[in-house]
Amino acid sequence: MESHIVSNAVVAGLLAGLAGLVLLIRRSRMWSDALSEIWHRRRLAIGLIAFYVIVALLDSVAWVGGMEDGQDAVARHQAASVIDRLFADSQERSYSAPLADFEFYGGAPLRHPGSHLLGTDLIGRDVLYLSLKGARVALLIGGLTSLLAIPLALLFGVPAGYFGGRLDDVVFFVMSTLASMPGLLLLIALIMVLGKSTLAICFALAVTGWVGFCRVSRGETLKLRELEYVSAARALGISESQILLRHILPNLMHLVIITFVLMFSGLVLSEAILSWLGIGVDGSWGQMIDQARNELSRDPVVWWNVSAAGVALFGLILAVNFVGDALRDTLDPRTARETE
Amino acid sequence: MLAYLIRRLVYGVGVVFGVLFFLFVLFFTVTSPDDVARKALGERVPPAVIEQWKVNHGYDLPLFPGPGAWQENMLFEHYRRMLTFDFGRSDADDTPIIERIRSGMVPSLTLTLPLFALSLLTAIPLALLVAFFRETYIDRLGVVISVLAMSVSILLYIIGAQYLVGRLLHWFPISGFDSDPQLIVRFLALPLLVGVLAGIGGDVRFYRTVFLEESNTDYVRTARAKGCGEGRIMARHVFRNSLIPLLTRVILAIPFLFMGSLLLESFFGIPGLGAITVDAIQGNDFSVLRTMVYIGSLLFVFGQILTDLSYGLVDPRVRLE
Amino acid sequence: MGNGHRRRSWPALLFMAALFMAALCGCTNNPYSEADDQRKILYKSYREAPRTLDPAVAYTTGAHAITGEVYETLLEYHYLKRPYVLIPGLAAALPEAREVDADWTLYRFELRKGLLYQDDPCFALDGVSRETREVVTGDIAFQLMRLADPGVNSPVAEPFGNIRGFSEFAERLSEARDADAEFGALPIREQYAAVGPMQGVRVQGRYGLEVEVSNTYPQILYWFAMPFTAPVPWEAVAYYDGEGGRPRFADHPVGTGPYRVTEYEKHSRIILEANPNWYGVLHPEWRAPGAIYPESGAPGDLEAGRLDEAVVGRALPFIERIEFRREKESIPYFNKFLQGYYDAAGIIKESFDKVIHEGGLSEDMRATGISLEKSVEPSVFYVGFNMDDEVVGAAGGESTRKLRQAMSLVIDTDEYSRLFSNGRGVPAQSPLPPGLFGYDPDYRNPFRQVDLELARELVAEAGYPGGIDPATGTPLRLTFDTSDTSAQGRLRFEFFTRAWRQLGIDVVIEATNYNQFQEKVRNGAYQIFMWGWFADYPDPENFLFLLWSEMARSKSGGPNTANFSNPRYDELYLSVKARPNDSIRLAEIEEMRGILEYERPWIELTHSEAYSLFHGWLAYVKPFGMSFPMTKYRDLDVELRARRRAEWNRPILWPLYVILALGVVVVVPGILTFMRERQ
To answer: HEC profile for C661-674?
Structure first.
């Protein structure tokens, strides 16, 4: 199947899922209260994240056709996203400073003078375009990996905590084994096996990242199991799966959300390091930074590509961290603050 | 206590066996012995030489134990060698790996030990300070700065520091290392600075959360109501009782001090274990990579046991059955 | 009240402050000990640890930077003369050549008497208590046998096959080892003795050597100026076996040269010191050509200060010590050069525009006393097609040829050069670089000038109108295989793929790690690749052989990675190989060039140009072009260097005070306010 059709389908699915989530949340009083409080406290950060999400979505909706103009004869036959189309045929030959009319070195006139908001890179690609495309990659890395790691952690952690016994021992052993291998090295070894496609890297990141949350969910499940109403449910003879789904899991949701948000930023930062080692994802901000970091020593300095990627990366991580903090303060009963 | 210790040790050994198995599967299915041989010997090598090399390095046996011959296979060899610390030679240049580890350990420790101490000495007091002044602008500022600091990739810290401090201000050499006591401080100053800066955001946030949690507990609120000074509360009650989560984080980190920091050593040219690991990654040297992962695992298991032991020392409520 | 807390944190803060002050006292960015400031030490850097220093195997520039100083050969290159000229090194004179019969030529070498190896414990083998011994021609014969030894696996065994009896020796050795396992366990020297010497290598007494070489390979003489033919003591090979705590011979060179290795931490630093046993130091009265500074040179040397009265004819070496430091990253390396901590450097592309203005040094650079030497290196970089491949290779005949020609027509070398090497380098029209016989500066390869219209026509004629592959209805898809996975390497490949996209051809980059890349090459599973070649010696044969069918990767694992095979080209090559530099050779080379132009197995990119920077305190530098270090001819002014370094590296401390002040200003009012409020 064409990859852009898959991508479009995933985007549609995500939107539908989001809509469904919103509906679900509005039904529960506790949740709507908690989330609206977070919204009030972190409007700016949430807005920023929303901006990134929208950009990523725009970059995921792609179709073939309509790219006949331009030097790139191959692009006519390939799928182009909304972002691609906005910046179609914006190529220059080499560096140009933001909003410049002439090339940075050599002074030749640009093909599109004054139209590059963030300048162009070594081979003339518009830096704003590259930064926007990086959003999709970052959200994929953070989002997809977390979506893989968290269910995996729940799948192993909850039954281990609930049923205990042999299952618990096995799960604990597997967890310990994986956890005792230095994360970065394990990651690299896995990537060598699985290849360097985005999916493979996300999968490898998930495998090295699920253990932390598994431990937490196991611990929480252990605590929840001892609650009165759970014991009552068991005594009443309600099936285990019902108990797990209706009593245990919902009470883990707040941890899930917090973990999702906090893992996200760590993953995106890890990818930057992977890019430096040469095994990162194509088109990521980490790769942009790596490509351009030596350019800071040019004289006069070429600062716009590293800055753009660095700021884009920083912005997303910062916003996510702030929201994550607020989420934890609101949802995690252990850190509920005293009211003045 | 002793029974507990023994049980933990046995469990630890089990984990190490599991790790070794995982490593074996990973490293011996990823690349064929032929590839490793060619990488070490070069391209235009007659097959006979490759066969010889494989025999010399133990790559010519079957992978898994077959019927009857449970010793003559690579899995057994792998276990035997790793457990006896017979690491063999590097795939890339045939240096005995033990040599490289020995030569890399000291530079790594000269970096990680001071880094560890400095990070603790800066983060804990700062976190205490911020928790002490909670709800004031110092607290808010502290949180914002911490989050800001955490959100910057360590790569950017390194690049920035090398440019600013090394090149523009001429305070310290940009990179390099010399174990001569006269010279060592100037080489370590910059990586230490960067290491502390890069970690301080996350550390302060973590410790602050722990301290805040603790200072909201009933007994602390009681002490406050009784009129006990905030400072004393912080020092005597909050700090002491936060030790368990603190210790977990701190003691768990100790064994990894031996492994060195991959990024710092690589960028600043410190020839420690981290640099060796990065070289192995970029040079596809599986023998060295395998050894480093194994050592890391050993250290981690050791660290976990240490942590559990320390609980008993610190918190009399914890009964180690 | 708040006292308990204060008491807690002040000690910590004081401690930090103390540590900081201590660090400040060591506040300097000099990476070397101050005690070394007054010594004549040359500081260089390297990127990768050398794989091996065994002169029979070492084939990289990095390894030669060391083996070239430690091992010496019968012949050497004259330091200053261009075109390159051979002079006697360890030999007493240039060899006599005599044609023995229709097939063989005899070269007779006479070794100098009284040459000694560096002091080394390996010579105490055999129970004799001594630290060194005299060099004899038997040692050179020993090295030649090592080159043939399949166990040593020398990468240059092939050209040495032109020595009579070379391959036969290798065969005898293999057979003896296969026949008897115990034979293979004997010491190497005994194995060689048992199998018998090579027919074409005859040792005569202690100082005579006769070598019989095939008539078709006069270039063999150049190999006698490379470490591959250096005398190697059998004691070193036997003693340094990697057992019992001893390093391997590949990590412990034992030579006769002006320098010897005294410290070898190859992953971080390497130190060479002047060798007191070098013949130039022990016997200055010989006035040997390789031990005194040359008395004549090439035009331009006088003006450049390389033929000063003060130095001409003086005994070498001048520099007492060479220190190498490993620099993995290019920016710190270049910055240290600018700070004066490395004495010479190449220019990195990021700093190019600061350093070079309009082809020469910028004002700032010249003011610091740095000088620039440009030299076009005998090299060629190219993009190659795998001629064995169905889609792009020879099997497609006319159609694939047009495809290759079209793809060659859209690569703009000037632009490539401008983006990735700051415009340095000569755009290549054919494999032969400037400076070699057969190079024609006026020749323009019609397929190396950009012509988009023509390229589009050719693509259509090749069967892919608009770049569309009729079989699939989508753009033709080709793969560009490489082992460069770095983010910066990607930019380079993007440049190429963007050019080909103009034709509607979709070239996909397949970057894998080195292992997997070599695997692809071995299996012939590649279509387009990129490569570079540096000359071993200054003869066109050393470039033309890269397209000889016998050297095809698929056939013999040779360096003809394009697997180019053209009978007429092969015919001409064999003729060119053996010819002296006459008009017939020129005509043949031109015909070969024509074949390559038409068939396009390569898209030639550039002949690289090295811009080397030298600090003002370094004297008598002349870049060499091929990878031979010539440190013995160089000198430095230590006073000047120490002064300049101090001047350039004064620490700037005011930002520190500003930060401290800021810190106090921010925190103190807060604390005061809080104390007031809490009371």
So the answer is: HHHHHHHHHHHHHH
